[in-house]
Amino acid sequence: MTTAAAGSPRTYQVRTYGCQMNVHDSERISGLLEQAGYVRAVEADGEPDVVVFNTCAVRENADNRLYGNLGHLRPVKDKHPGMQIAVGGCLAQKDRGDIVRKAPWVDVVFGTHNIGSLPALLERARHNAAAEVEILESLDVFPSTLPTRRESTYAGWVSISVGCNNTCTFCIVPSLRGKEKDRRPGDVLAEVRALVDSGVLEVTLLGQNVNSYGVEFGDRYAFGKLLRACGEIDGLERVRFTSPHPKDFTDDVIAAMAETPNVCHSLHMPLQSGSDDVLKAMRRSYRSEKYLGIIERVRAAMPDAAITTDIIVGFPGETEADFQRTLDVVREARFASAFTFQYSKRPGTPAATMPDQLSKQVVQERYERLIATVEEITWAENRKLVGQPVEVLVAVGEGRKDERTGRMSGRARDGRLVHFATGANGQHGATGANGQHGDGGLLAGRIRPGDIVHTTVTYAAPHHLNADGAPLAHRRTRAGDAAEAGRAPRTPGVLLGLPTVGAPAATPAPATGCAAH
């Protein structure tokens, strides 16, 4: 007996933890399941037939979070015979068979290198009534060849590489994602064009170390060339990338960013620490002077560039002087925002066995001082934009208070979050450029996710901007049309002989009488 009604397709739900790579992997998991005959679960229809956890192993509490969620799901599964639970991602790659030992009600465990096996593993587990564990040590097929169900009508992830050749002492990712493997530029650009053809306006090029792209085929300038090639794609309005590594960041990339009109002037450049001693212990092959030099050259070429970063507090052996140096670099770099982390010990990394592990109390106190410094700077940088015009790509789910405030939200070209008024309450906007019209109250209800709005910043907070005047202009887009129609882009892939489940597709009617024989 299964939870799906006889003859109806089985339903699925994917729960994602971790980085952008995991988010994009979950789009592939959804695409695979839907091509295999599953349909996405709707909350009103009750519990899904398949729940997939796509896990992260970067943080110390990742294990507890997974097993806690699996524990909550056990009684649900007991009440729904035929329900299946699958665990994939980095934690699955790390823990392997331990997951089934600790949570024997799990049906499938799959790793980062064999996402494409999931439909087959689910079917095999159902047939054999036993857990299936398959963890490959290296890719058997590049993930982007798999079908993908995109979550956004207006913005898409495009992987240009997977894996990482760096050996940072705090990071477990290389052992779980493997060595870097690069896609050919033609394959990347073909996927970008396919997304644009479906209405997508913004593409983010994705890799564990995105600017080392080309190492596998011997072209150290390949990433800059790829950015310039994206500039030649009609209909592609915004190009972003994440995350680069300072050691591989070259001046030709800065030039490509500055000279290619659709490449956004936003740069996420992980710092991790401002102390050269800590950077050395982290095995980060740059020092603070080089890092700040990159920032200086980026701003010389693009004065409006918004630069964001990652910072770790409390790395083993970090002294108060080391931490003060981090604060100094933060003040000098003037980041638009920063993702800040307390050092998290991960078994299997060199840092986990280093001496001089810091107490939780010391790390917490430094973390709070870092947050205060970052917010002081980001608020000051954001206040400089009050009164300035801004172009916003309207998004879904970016503004938690939008329903209450009557605003909508989206991202500026530099990546900043903007909450904007739609022109209700009798406000009237001016006519915009290129025949766009800011028709005040008439815009309320007409602006869709994926549309472009021009407005003026009226207020700045440390983490967002507000634009509370009437929009200056509004441009309806194909991405907005797709959002209004409820269409999510789907990138086709190669099914690789995987089984299908659920109700079979309807057989098309024969074109002639002969076709029936």
Automatic annotation (TrEMBL):
Binds 2 [4Fe-4S] clusters. One cluster is coordinated with 3 cysteines and an exchangeable S-adenosyl-L-methionine. Belongs to the methylthiotransferase family. MiaB subfamily. Its EC number is 2.8.4.3. GO terms for molecular function: 4 iron, 4 sulfur cluster binding; metal ion binding; tRNA-2-methylthio-N(6)-dimethylallyladenosine(37) synthase activity. One of its GO terms (cellular component) is cytosol. It holds the Pfam family UPF0004. Residues 383-471 form the TRAM domain. PANTHER family: CDK5 REGULATORY SUBUNIT-ASSOCIATED PROTEIN 1 (PTHR43020), MITOCHONDRIAL TRNA METHYLTHIOTRANSFERASE CDK5RAP1 (PTHR43020:SF2). Monomer. Residues 10-127 form the MTTase N-terminal domain. It is an enzyme of class 2 (transferase). Its cofactor is [4Fe-4S] cluster. It comes from the Bacteria. Its main location: cytoplasm. [4Fe-4S] cluster 2 binds at C164, C168, C171. Residues 150-381 form the Radical SAM core domain. It catalyses: N(6)-dimethylallyladenosine(37) in tRNA + (sulfur carrier)-SH + AH2 + 2 S-adenosyl-L-methionine = 2-methylsulfanyl-N(6)-dimethylallyladenosine(37) in tRNA + (sulfur carrier)-H + 5'-deoxyadenosine + L-methionine + A + S-adenosyl-L-homocysteine + 2 H(+). Keywords: 4Fe-4S, Cytoplasm, Iron, Iron-sulfur, Metal-binding, S-adenosyl-L-methionine, Transferase, tRNA processing. Residues 469-493 are annotated as: Disordered. Coiled coil: none annotated. [4Fe-4S] cluster 1 binds at C19, C56, C90. This is tRNA-2-methylthio-N(6)-dimethylallyladenosine synthase. It is found in: Cytoplasm. Catalyzes the methylthiolation of N6-(dimethylallyl)adenosine (i(6)A), leading to the formation of 2-methylthio-N6-(dimethylallyl)adenosine (ms(2)i(6)A) at position 37 in tRNAs that read codons beginning with uridine.
